[in-house]
Amino acid sequence: MGMEVPISIRIGARRAYIVGMSTIDDLNKRLGIPDVLSFDEGEGDLPFARIRSDRGAADVSLYGANVTHFKPVGVEHPVLWMSPEAVFAEGKAIRGGIPVCWPWFGNHPSGSPEKPAHGVARIRLWDVREARVDDSGRVRLKLAMPGTESDLALTLEIAVGAALELRLTTENTGDAPVAMTAALHTYFSVSEIGNVRIKGFDGVEYWDQLEDNAEKRQDGDIVIDREVDRIYVSTEGECRILDAGWERIIRVAREGSGSAVVWNPWIEKSARLGDFPDDGYPGMLCIEAANAGPDVVTLQPGMRHVLGTTISVMP
Ligand code: BG6
Predict the structure, then answer these.
(1) Could you read off the pLDDT of 244-295 as tens digits, one per residue?
(2) Alpha carbon of 292 to those of 103, 166, 258: distances in Å?
(3) Which of 15, 86, 94, 145 is the most exposed place for a label (fewest CB within 10 A)?
(4) Which of 196, 239, 250 is nearest to 76 (CA)?
(5) How much is the pTM?
(6) Protein residue with its CA nearest to atom 10 in ligand 1
(7) From the alpha carbon of 274, which atom of ligand 1 is closest?
(8) Of 2.30.38.10, 2.70.70.10, 2.70.98.10, 2.60.40.10, which CATH number belongs to 7-314?
(9) How many Å lie between the centroid of ligand 1 and the Cα of residue 292?
(10) pLDDT tens digits for 119-174?
(11) Which residues are within 8 A (CB) of 16 and not within 5 positions of it... i.e. 6 or more apart?
């Protein structure tokens, strides 16, 4: 199914978003929360939500519904990694933060080169539906991708407190079942990849994407000392990134996610990869709450699926 593609136009110095006809001023008037939530034109003149609360700070690009920055109060280093070469422009995926891969992970199942890698959600402009502070003091934003894609409607709820919580809800609005895959493609910032161990996957099977999806089993913690591109399958538990350099542990919990992707491009792929510095790989690591590989979700008409993740930091 086709869908209207959101585009933006300039009205005077301000940009209006065709989809909701919202301007930055409208967004601030309707949804801004003094000293807590505001909207502005950020990198690439794209619209951003800025959340600054007494618990944590986050930036959200409405283009791609990408959480580009998150840092709980009292934590020294940002939790998310953003490429210094990231390009913020319509038609390009943002290299860093949390891109939303949807409704397919990786290449389109048909193999069509015309279909963008990791789906369409990360290269669309999203609408803001709701913004509020909840009873626990978390700042909540609800974003919606305008229109539908293959009869699937998509929203992303973001809650910012001491933890960052994301819930990506897909609803089948059509009258036939639809199969989909997805990922919350989180780029974590680390002190130096050699200082890092990932706990939570011992004994879990994975598809090695570097060896034509050869099936292997994890033995012990994950240590990254080479290119790694794996889909851990049949795994639902929390994992932890132990970073001895910054003396912190990042906890990654998942919801509705039967698989997790672990990725670091290492030396040669960093050199090939767009918008990624050659020396960027030691400072980052992706762990993605996913429905990927064999973990395909088939949504019946009228049904919903939630893919979620909760990210928190322990000293
Ligand atoms: C990961 C994939 O999820 O995303 C990798 O497992 C891929 O194979 C990486 O290289 C980045 O993808 P992209 O499309 O953002 O360059």
Answers:
(1) 999 999 999 999 999 999 999 999 999 999 999 999 999 999 999 999 999 9
(2) 11, 18, 8
(3) 15
(4) 250
(5) 0.95
(6) 265
(7) 16
(8) 2.70.98.10
(9) 12
(10) 999 999 999 999 999 999 999 999 999 989 999 999 999 999 999 999 999 999 99
(11) 8, 9, 10, 22, 23
106 alpha carbon to ligand 1 midpoint, in Å?
Answer: 7
Dist CA 59 CA 67 (whole Å): 6
φ, ψ at 109 (rounded to 5°): -55, -25
Query: Known catalytic residue: 227?
Result: no
**Residue in the block written with tokens 């598809």:** 207
For 55, 118, 158, 166, 222, the CA distances from 169, given in Å and listed in that order, are: 25, 17, 11, 10, 30
Q: Are 299 and 172 in contact (CB under 8 A)?
A: yes
What is the enclosing helix (H) or strand (E) of 270? helix 266-272
Mutation choice for ligand 1 from 101, 118, 213, 281, CB with most ligand atoms inside 8 A: 118
The atom of ligand 1 lying closest to the CA of 117 is 14
Q: Which residue has tokens 């609005």?
A: 173
* Active site annotation includes 118: no
Nearest atom in ligand 1 to 99's CA? 15
- What residue owns the CA closest to ligand 1's atom 5? 229
Which among 105, 85, 107 is positioned nearest to 95, based on CA atoms? 85
**Tokens matching residue 203:** 């004994």
